[in-house]
Please model this.
Amino acid sequence: MSTHVATISSPAGSSAAGSIHSVGAAANKALVLGFVGLAATGLGVVVSGKAAAFSYLTGLVFWVAVALGALFLIMIHHVFDAGWSTVLRRQYENWITCLPWLGLLFAPLLISAVVAPGLIWKWTDPSYDLSQIGGHGTVSQDVLWVKKSGLLSTMTLIIASFVGFGGWTLISSRLRAHSVAQDTDGDIAHTHANRFWTAVGLPFTALSMTLCVILWVKALDYHWYSTMFGVWFFAGAIRAALSLGIILMIWLWSRGDFKGILNNNHMHSIGMLMFAFTVFWAYITFSQYFLIYMANIPEETFWYSLREINKDGHFNSWGYVGMFLLFGHFFAPFLTLIHYPVKLSKTWLPRVGAFIAAVVLVDMIYNVMPSLKNSSGDAYPFLSLNLLWIATSVVGVGGVCVWAYLNSFAKTKLIPIRDPRIVESLTYHE
Amino acid sequence: MAATFYGLMARFDTAPEIYHAAQQVRDAGYKNWDCITPFPVHGLDGAMGLGRSNVPKFSLVGGLTGFTTGMSMIWFTGAFDYPLIVGGKPYFSPLFAFPISYELTILFTAFATIAGMFILNWLPQHYHPVLKSKEILRGLDDAFYVVIEARDPKFDLNRAKALLSHAGAKEISELEA
Model:
C-alpha cells in the first residue's frame, strides 16, 4: 500500500526525454524498412502480377485490422469510462496515427480497380471472363452478380474506402488530440469530448469497417454469403491489437519507461482480454463454419470446399492451413492463456501475443489468397512464391505503421498524466 | 461438561493494523487461523500468506466432464444406440456435437466451481465458535479480528497471546468451541 505513493511520483516526470533520439533513429530505420518492403512488393507485381496484388491486399488488410483494433480498444475504454487501461491507452493513441498512411497505401488498389479492372475484384470489370477461373460466361451475365450489382461496383468500392479511411482518420485524430491536449491543461472537457467522439465513432467504425471488409475481402468471392464476416474481422482486429498492446507494454517495461507503472494486475487484465477474445474468435469462426456446414447450400459451401479440396477431389494445402487455424488460433492460445501464471509472465504473455498476431495474419491469408484461382477453379497452393510477396507487404506496410507510432511516441507523454482516471490506473488492484 | 477451548480472538481497530498483524502471525508459522474483517481488505490474502485458490481445479474437472459428457451423449444417441441419418450428415461428427459439448462444459464448470467453493470453505456451516462471542458483532461493523485456533500445531496459549499483543491487539479474548 505504501509503495503506491512512491510509484505515482516517478512516471509523470520520466517521459523518457533522454531516449527520444534513439526512438527517432529507430523510426527512420522502420521507415526505410517499410520502403524496402513496399519496393520489393512493387517488384513482385512486376514478377507475379495479380498474385502479388492479392498478397499486398493481405498484408495491408492485416495492418488495417491492427489499427482498427487499437481504435476500437480506445473507444471501448472511453465508452465504459474504464480505469485500469488508462496507462496503456496512450500507446494505442500513438499507434492509430498510422490510419491516414494506411489509407494512402490503399490508394494503389483503388487505382488498379479503375485502370486495370478485374485485377483484384472481378466485379470491378463486368466483362471479366469467368472461364479463366473455372466458371463460365462473364461477370455481367452472372445472375449472382446482377442481383448484387448495386453494392458490388467500382463506385461503391471507392466511396466506401474513402468514407472508411476518412472517418477513421478523423475519429482517431480527434481522440488522440483531446487526450494529448489534456496532458497540458488537465481540462475535463477533453474527456467529455472523447466520449462524444466515441459515441459517434463506435457505430460508425463498426458499420464502415464491416462494409469495407465485405467489399475488400469477402467480395473477392462475390458468390459467397456469410453474415458472420464483419464480426470475424472485428474479432481478429481486437486480438491483433491486444497482442500489439502487450508487446508495447513489455517493450516499454524492458526499456525502463514502464518500471513502476506496469503492475501484475495490468498484465492479468490484458491477459484476460486476450483470453476472452480467443474464445470470441472461436465462437464467431465456428458459428460461420457450422451454419454453412449444417445448411449445406452450394452458394455457401463452395467457399470452404475451395479451402479443403480441389475440383478433382484431392485434399489441398489450404485444408492444413484451416486445421492450423483451428488449433493455432483457438486451442493453443486457449489452453495457454487459461493458465494464471502465463497471464502474469512478462516473458510468456508477449510471446503468446506475438504468436496470436502471426496467426491473425495466417487467418487473413486463409481468407484472401484462395480466392485467387487457377483456370480449373482451384486455389493456388499455400506454399508458393506468394508467401514472399505477403512477407514483403507485411514488412512494408508494417514499417510505415511502426514509423508513424514512433513519431507520435516521441512527441507525446508516456501516459496521459492528467487523465481523471490515471491514479486509479497506476494503483490498479483487482 | 466444561466447554472446550477453541482459540484466541484479538481485536484490531484499523485495516493497516490487522494487515501488519496478519504478516506477523503468518511469519510466526501458524496455519489454522483466520482474519475477520467488516469489508474486503486489499492485499490481506498476501499478508496472510494465502496462495491461489484451489477452486480452479474443481472447475477444470467439471469442464472436462461436461465436454466429455456432451461428446459421448451425441455419439451414443446418434451413432451407437439408435443410428439415424439426419440431414445427410454422418452419424457422428465432433462438429454438430460441439455446441452441446460446449454448453455442458460451461454448465458443469459452473456447478463444479460453486460446489468447489462450498467444499473448500466448509459450507454450509451453521455454527462457528466465534459466533458465541458478542464481540463478533463489531467484526461486522467497525473492528478487525485475528482468530488463532488452539488446534494449530504451533499453538501455545502464552506465546500466541504475546504474539498478538506484540502485534498491537487492542483486546484479546478466549473462545469456547
Notes: Helices of chain B lie at 15-27, 44-47, 55-81, 94-120, 136-139, 157-166. Chain B has a mean pLDDT of 92. Chain B is about 50% helix and 15% strand.
